[in-house]
Amino acid sequence: MHDLQAAFQLAFRLIFTGDADLMEIIGLSMGVSLTAVLLACVIGMILGAAAGVLRFPGRPAVIIFLNALMGLPPVVVGLGVYLLLSRAGPLGVFGLLYTPTAMIVAQTILVTPIVAALTRQVVEDLYEEYDEQLRSLGVSGVGLVRTLLWDARFSLITVALAGFGRAVAEVGAVMIVGGNIDHLTRVMTTAIALETSKGNLALALALGIILVGISLIVNGAVSILGGRTGRPRHA
User: Fold this and answer.
1) Which of 30, 31, 45, 152 ranks highest by number of CB atoms within 10 Å?
2) Mean per-residue pLDDT of the chain
3) Among 3, 19, 1, 4, residue whose Cα is nearest residue 207
4) CB-side exposure of 129: number of CA atoms within 13 Å?
5) Residue 107 · residue 36 · CB < 8 Å
6) 103 Cβ contact partners less than 8 Å away, ≥ 6 residues apart
7) Which fold has domain 17-229?
8) Helices and strands counted in the chain (H then E)
9) What would you measure as the largest C-alpha separation in the chain, in angstroms?
């Protein structure tokens, strides 16, 4: 009990004194996750909006596929990206394995289906609400997708936050493709796993406290923004 209390005290000391190693890990985590979410939003929101409003053969199958991809096992994604970026893989020539770029790629693949599926639902609901008005204005195709994305922008912020929450908590995929290399690819989740196995509870607890704090902030923001939009929350 005394050791655990001491670990908590040291953890809070690391946080409040701005320990260099702690800040470096947090900074890399935020940079990787934010970049991945930005890329996932660009890809996923366009795909999701298109699936929500455009009618084409096989659309139900596409929607089912998008929803199914939300449950992609992170370690499988990590393995797939590893095989692509390894020296024997088709993209091995770029030397991206065990770099932050590889981690961004893995997180983007994980988050994109979540963003796409949630965006599809948000945009489709909005389309059903304004269908007649949009038809009377002659809005269709790309213009329709663009218009609905803009009108749903506040709801889509909650979608982006949900994607960020998923990305920042990821451990399996980033461990495989990043290698958890000190001062290069060590993020909060992988550092917590490593430091706990080493018995360095203070740093692990400090990172855990920060990670929980980020999760609370993200979920709080989703709840507040979801309430302000007046639409069902999807995160």
Assistant:
1) 45
2) 87
3) 19
4) 10
5) yes
6) 32, 36, 173, 174, 177, 178, 185, 187
7) MetI-like fold (1.10.3720)
8) 10, 0
9) 71
34-56 average pLDDT score: 92
Contact between 181 and 191 (Cβ < 8 Å): no
Q: What is the Cα–Cα distance from 25 to 183, expressed in whole angstroms?
A: 8
Which tens digits make up the pLDDT trace of 3-14? 777 888 888 888
* 48, two tokens: 């999701």
Coil, strand or helix at 125: helix
pLDDT of residue 234: 41
Q: Please name the residues in contact with 209: beta carbons below 8 A apart, sequence gap of 6 or more.
A: 11, 12, 15
Residue 81's pLDDT is: 96
Measured distance CA(221)–CA(218) in Å, rounded = 5
The length of the chain, given as a count of residues: 235
Question: Which residues contact residue 24 at a Cβ distance below 8 angstroms, ignoring those fewer than 6 apart?
Answer: 183
CA 154 – CA 172 distance, rounded (Å): 31
Rounded (5°) CA angle 134-135-137: 65
* pLDDT tens profile 72-115: 899 999 999 999 999 989 999 999 999 999 999 999 999 999 99
Would you state the pLDDT for residue 235? 37
